[in-house]
Specification:
It is a single chain. The chain is α/β, with parallel strands linked by helices and 322 residues long. The chain contains ten helices and twelve strands. It has helices at residues 57-65, 87-94, 114-125, 130-143, 160-172, 190-207, 218-224, 242-247, 252-259, 300-304; strands spanning 9-21, 27-41, 46-50, 72-77, 80-81, 97-100, 178-182, 210-214, 227-232, 235-241, 310-312, 315-317. The strands form two sheets. The protein has an eight-stranded mixed beta sheet with strand order 6-7-8-3-9-10-12-11, sandwiched between helices. Strands 2-1-4-5 form a four-stranded antiparallel beta sheet. Strand 11 (310-312) and strand 12 (315-317) form a beta hairpin. It is globular.
Length: 322
């Protein structure tokens, strides 16, 4: 019997399309936000999900968490298909699978003090007494590095970094197995960003968390993630161990993304082209390879045949000529 653990999260050909309607409510097309993603996330790892704005990475995370219902495909969490569970069963899954929003202030009720926001998940999902909830709330608040006095503050009285810590405390009260982090360091000063990243590592070790780390900040992803998945126009184009992808990217899109990252000292990816133009409209996806309209290496085969995500030198790449 193999000792290899089963994936905590597994996506199988996951699709999420949004209808486009005219002024009369008639559907005129589809926005192909997520278009056939297959991916596994293993217990205890941090998987980075990167790509340009509009590539579908946040939609992918929100489909996994249940904000969006999959158009097709499977979402398996801890071996169970969860993509189309009824609301009551889905709420039970919420204890183990949590989402940290890009704007932490928007996920906190401005009329509630921090203490109310932290008690609410426990009141809904557990049968703990008021005293037991209070004890757990204070312990979690200390774990994210905030003093007990912050329990009496409202969200607008907190800084951006403090709001992120409260948001983390709110989901950690339920002791989840996996946390999806959506741009968790955007808008933070460098010093605050560093402290938040240190907190993520500490919490992962303390609570045995598995992270999906959605970000456009490649420097942060390199520091935080054990593996990286690169998305372009709703699909994965490269997937592999972070050091290998950063040191020797194989897909032209990954190469162009990394070439744009400024580096002080150290090795830099050397290319004779840079990423130009905007991604195509996800309502009108190019036939064949989706990156071919911006790729300097394009050939006739790229328009005729969409490249599959295939194994190559210990990683997976969706390119005919990688």
């Amino acid at each position: 019997m193999s000792d290899t653990p089963a994936p905590l999260l597994e996506l199988v050909d996951l699709v999420r399309h949004f209808p486009v309607r005219n002024a009369f409510g008639r559907r005129t097309g589809w926005i192909r936000a997520v278009d056939g993603v297959s991916l596994a996330v293993w217990p205890g790892e941090t998987l980075g999900l990167v790509g340009e704005s509009g590539c579908g990475k946040s939609t992918l995370g929100k489909t996994v968490i249940g904000i969006h219902v999959p158009t097709s495909g499977d979402i398996r969490f801890a071996g169970r298909e969860i993509g189309r569970l009824p609301p009551r069963e889905r709420r039970a899954i919420a204890r183990d699978l949590q989402y940290v929003y890009q704007d932490p202030g928007a996920s906190l009720d401005p009329r509630w003090k921090v203490v109310h926001s932290l008690h609410e998940p426990l009141a809904i999902h557990t049968r703990l007494s008021r005293a037991e909830r209070e004890s757990q709330v204070r312990a979690i608040l200390a774990a994210v590095g905030l003093p007990g006095a912050h329990l009496d503050l409202y969200p607008h009285e907190l800084s951006g970094g403090q709001q992120r810590r409260v948001g983390l405390a709110r989901i950690l009260t339920l002791r989840p197995k996996m946390v999806i982090l959506d741009e968790p360091t955007s808008g933070l000063d460098v010093s605050v960003q560093a402290s938040v990243l240190k907190l993520f590592r500490s919490l992962q070790a303390t609570f045995a968390l598995t992270y999906v780390f959605i970000s456009h900040d490649l420097a942060v992803v390199r520091a935080m993630c054990s593996r990286i998945a690169v998305m372009y126009l709703g699909t994965l184009v490269e997937l592999g161990e972070t050091p290998e992808v950063f040191d020797s990217p194989r897909h032209p899109y990954t190469q162009s993304l990394l070439a744009a990252v400024p580096r002080i000292g150290g090795r830099r990816v050397t290319l004779d082209f840079a990423l130009e133009g905007e991604p195509p409209n996800p309502r009108d996806v190019p036939n064949g390879c989706r990156f071919r309209t911006r790729c300097p290496l394009v050939q006739a085969r790229c328009a005729a045949e969409e490249p599959p995500l295939r194994a190559l030198d210990g990683r997976h790449v969706a390119c005919h000529f990688a």
